[in-house]
Amino acid sequence: MPVFQELIHDVQGQAINVCSMFLLLSSFAIVAQRSLASCVSLYAMQSFFLGFTAMVVANASGVHHLYFAAALNFLIKAWLIPRILHRAVDRLNVKREVEPLVNIPSSLLICGGLMILALYFSQPIKQIGPLLTNDSLALGLAIVFIGCFIMISRRKLVTQIVGFLTVENGLFLLATAITYGMPLIVELGVFFDILVAALIFGVLLHRIQDTVESARPAESRFEEVGEVAP
Amino acid sequence: MFGNICLIFLQMVVILGVSPFVVGLIRKVKAWLQCRKGPSVFQPYADLRKIFCKEAVIPSTTSWIFTITPYILFGSTLAAGLLVPAFFADMPLGFAGNIIALVYLLALGTFFLILAGLDAGSAFGGMGSSREALVASVTEPAMILSIFAIGLTAGSTNLNTIVHRTALFQGVTTDPAPHLLALGALFIVALAETGRVPVDNPATHLELTMIHEAMILDYSGRYLALVEWAASMKLLVFLSLLVNIFAPWGIAVEATAGAMTLGLVAYLVKVSALAVVIGILECTVAKLRLFRLSELLGAAFILALLAVIFFYMFRG
Amino acid sequence: MNLLAALLGIPAGAAVLVLLPFPIAVVGRLNVLCMLATLLTAGAMVPLVLAQGTLEGLHHFLRVDALSCLMVLLVSLTSFLASFYSVGYWESQPREERGSDQKIRGYYALVNLFVMSMLVVCTTDNLGVLWVALEATTLASAFLVGFYNKEASLQAAWRYLIICSLGISFALIGVVLAFASAVSAAGFHEYALNWSYLTSIADQLDPTALKLAFGFAVVGFGTKAGLVPMHGWLPDAHSEAPTPVSALLSGVLLKCALYALIRFAILVNHGIGDNFSGSILMPFGFLSVGIAALYLFGQTQIKRLLGYSSIEHVGVITIGLSFGSPLAVFGALFHMWNHAMTKSLLFFTAGNLYLCHHTLSMQKITGSLRLTTGTGIALLVGGLALSGTPPFSIFISEFSIVSAGIQLGYWVAPLLLIVLLVVIFAGLFSQLSRMAFGLPSEDAQDHEPSASPPISSLTGWALVIPMGFIVLMGWFIPGPLFELFSEGTRIITGDVPVETSIRSWWGNVWQE
User: Fold this and answer.
1) Residue ranges in chain C whose pLDDT is less than 70
2) Given CB atoms, is A28 within the 8 Å cutoff of chain B?
3) For residue B104, what are the contacts with CB-CB under 8 A and spacing of at least 6?
4) Domain that holds residue C475
């Protein structure tokens, strides 16, 4: 039944597209978000969609280790890391609002521009990836760029973490799209790194909270501090 | 020919007749969710009848614009309503204008309403007009882009063609992603254009927040009735647009009586369902501050932009 | 194989060992022994590598060739020096400043993990594992940078962590692209991420993808290496970290990132040729040297000054790599070593000055030649060496890079480099000589610290090895090391037989 199989293939391709679209939308939602806690929740949602995308890709491509990666995604990125971050946000006694340096409509527009940039970058390398997922390539790259933008344009430390994690999610989508995922050992290493990074971020946040009243990176404090320990 | 005229007439009746019901339904849903009994869903009909019978007072400071606006508004909205396929996919008036014409017919009414709000010279009218102008101008790009995206996926800007194609499950299955994005954008646009909750609250006359109500404060009698009716028709036009472009299930594609009846029933069910959704939304979402409006509409614009980008990405 | 396992195993074991409840003085010395064992293991690899070409292990995950061997040797040598210095450094600091013994144990454990991940970076064959290990170096050293738990150091740690993690994410895109193009060119292969496999099929890889991958890799690894537009974390991290950690960061961490970049550059040059990598790297190199030269003048704090100088030297190495001729690459590799040694020397000196003066402000430290003669001499020698003055080894490597540029027929680039180096000499040496010469300031003598313990003599002894190195290497490179450098150059620049040209050039300089 070749026609039927082709249809299935098409449906799977579209399912991947729709999943990665939701992934992208949740990144945009993070950009548009004002409260820190919802940023974290949106990150969890994004990771959930990411895991889901990975599952669909695994199903469509028959690359089984992606199931494992998807499961890790659900466990670590969609559950564990948001938990750590939620606790960190709860413990902060700062105003629980994102303080964007660029206002939200302009941020959204800039992210739209970044999306086009990602599209432009991904055009020449599209053909080296498998056909099924080659649309998600640009989306992965776009999410990476948007994550960077979140890190640059938001002042709060928590949003910087969320931006970093968004970048990682974009990378995962990129890797999934272009090669059906990296070899498992590397994938495991990356997950481990991200988890440890999130933990360290949490601890540092806590310590900074203890020493500084408001948890935000000082722009030019370092120059004033002449006398510090070596 | 005669059949076509009959169809147009039928469509007119449906648009005119169903629109107050939709408003009543939304109010009823809100009342239920707020644990009130609420007025009957047919209350808006009674309201219209009552207002029509009242004497119309025209402020002495106003010009001819004030008196002509309700007729223009009503006429343009009704014309827009005739362009949208409601229960039948091939509207005979389809040749007269495409989806872009629809947008500008609606914008024409808004334009005159803004003028009329300014015309009376009262403080509230001017305020309402300026706010309406703001909302309209930030909605416009999002609306045009989302329509552009829909047009791209359907391969036409003609509403009949769009609905016909999506009715045959072409649009939804070949490009689900841009379609969904355009749906999201158009939904936000619809809420903004018809003055529903996150943008404007139709149920209040609080001077700090009202937009649409502020512009029509000076109207009374049959003028008020026309304006209100036009507003409910506008809501219905947007609902039909959303329903028939994104979920054209059950719509009649051939001109037989059976298909028509089925189409009509399906249409009523779908529109009511969407009205219920809006009612629920209005109960759960707080009205946005005026300055935050640009964020919501900016989001709509981005959704529409993404829809266009996605279209090109997935196609080429 | 056993050597490789030992090389990674010793620091891993040491990380656990130092957490055991021995007295803190014992822990420090134990740590030195472990590092010495690592160094000896690395040294034992040299003859094997020279004889066999490569050592492989752990199912092709580890692979050591001459280039890796150079890096391994450098990492273990610098870590040994840093751990040696740590002992005296912590003993000379009052308890309330350095924190509890438990904290020092944590410090030693993290340093070991840090060193181990750097060793993994240098020995792994798998680009993915290399990435993971490089990210692990950031994670292991983040708390080391923020060790003092002050506002400034925590913010430096935060900035370090954020910028480096973000930057390195871009490198992962590069890795993914390289992997994808390998899979698409030659089908899925178990070792498709292995650097050795990738270079063997480099000519089949999609050139566009390879170019894009290299672009991302430059941004990513360049962030970690402190190349200029991405260098924001570097001066803060270098100045806020405890001194031995600063030496490690500046001496070897930056070089590990450069090593990753070199591996990528080799791949790209194999695939595209035409010294494509050089044309990308050169602007970054000049920007780094130029910006660092400007910033050197405004610094008031010695460790920040040294941080900016690290940016400059990373720039010089990058320029050397970008010239791409055997002589330039030889110079770049040699410069890595010279910089690591000189920078360790100067950071240790800065640490000693801090122990003595209780400040790092260069205004307040004067006349150290009179006050503490040994440290003063080290400061002077290090300063002269760092700014590229003749009898010291940095001069030799910088000279070979510049003359390689001229040999290649470039004129603007070498000249610009010379001008910038002169500016840097002025910026650096004017500041350091003021600290060495002159009269000791009044504060320093009044401010006789009563609470702090006597300064351990170990802090002085730690200066001997790097000082000896930079003086000796200005005249003479030991045979095996020279062979490693030549072999490393051959790996980078392709199959060009370079030894004769370098040897003869070397002879010329020596005779003059």
Assistant:
1) 1, 441-452, 495-512
2) yes
3) none
4) 278-442+454-512
User: Is C478 within 8 Å of C73 (Cβ atoms)?
Assistant: no
Greatest alpha-carbon pair distance for chain C in Å reads 73
Residue A61 lies in a domain: yes
Residue of A nearest to C126 (CA): A186
A21 in contact with B at a CB cutoff of 8 Å?
Answer: yes
Asked whether A216 and A155 are in contact (CB, 8 A), the reply is yes
Instruction: Give the 3-state secondary structure of residue C360.
Output: coil
Give the number of C-alpha atoms closer than 13 A to the C-alpha of residue C502, restricted to the C-beta side. 27
How far is it, in rounded angstroms, from Cα C341 to Cα C478?
16
For the beta carbon of residue A145, count every other beta carbon within 10 angstroms: 22
Residue A22 within any structural domain of the chain: yes
State how far residue A107 is from chain B, nearest Cα, in angstroms. Answer: 10
Q: Is A115's CB within 8 Å of B306's CB?
A: yes
Q: CB B295 to CB A115 under 8 A?
A: no
Separation of alpha carbons B83 and B248, rounded Å: 16
pLDDT at B205 over 80: no
Q: Do B302 and A112 touch (CB under 8 A)?
A: yes
The Cα C34–Cα C422 span in angstroms is 41
Q: List b or e across C452-482, with b for residues whose CB sees 16 or more CB atoms inside 10 angstroms.
A: beebbebbbebbeebbebbeebbeebeeeeb
The answer to whether residues C400 and C258 belong to one domain is no
B172 exposure class (CB count in 10 Å sphere: 0-12, 13-18, 19+): buried
Nearest to C331 by CA among C401, C421, C277: C401
By C-alpha distance, which of C41, C61, C38, C34 is closest to C121? C61
The tally of domains found in chain B comes to 1
Partner residue opposite A186 with nearest CB, options C132, C209, C359? C132
Number of neighbouring beta carbons within 10 Å of residue C445: 9
Q: Which of these, A214, A216, A225, A50, lies nearest to A144 by C-alpha position?
A: A50
Q: Are B127 and B209 in contact (CB under 8 A)?
A: no
Q: How far is A129 from chain C (nearest CA, A)?
A: 7
Indicate the burial class of B283 (C-beta count within 10 angstroms; 0-12, 13-18, 19 or more).
Answer: middle
Size of interface A-B (CB pairs under 8 A): 52
Q: Are B143 and B299 in contact (CB under 8 A)?
A: no
Closest Cα in chain A, distance from residue C242 (Å) = 5
Q: A111 in contact with B at a CB cutoff of 8 Å?
A: yes
Greater model confidence, B120 or C255? C255
| CA distances for C272 relative to B70, C46, C196, C405, angstroms | 71, 32, 16, 22
Least-confidence region, from B37-51, B103-117, C262-276: C262-276
Q: Would you say residue C146 lies in a domain? A: no
- Counted residue by residue, chain C has a size of 512
Q: Which tokens is C112 given?
A: 């070991």
Residue A53 has pLDDT above 70, yes or no: yes
From the CB coordinates, do chains A and B have 3 or more pairs under 8 Å? yes
- Report the range of poorest mean pLDDT among B125-134, B252-261, B262-271: B252-261
C-alpha B13 chain-centroid distance: 17
Structure tokens at C267: 């791949």
CA B92, distance to chain mean position in Å, is 21
* Structural domain includes residue C447: no
Return the residue in C169, C204, C348 with the most chain A beta carbons within 10 A, the one to mutate for interface testing: C169
Residues of the domain holding A197: 9-93+102-211
- Give the count of beta carbons closer than 10 Å to the beta carbon of residue A7: 12
What single letter denotes the amino acid at residue A174? Answer: L
Total domains, chain C: 3
State the pTM of this model: 0.86
The verdict on C256 and C189 lying in the same domain is: yes
Which alpha helices (H) appear in B34-63, and where do they start and end? 43-53
Beta partners for residue C124, in sequence order = C62
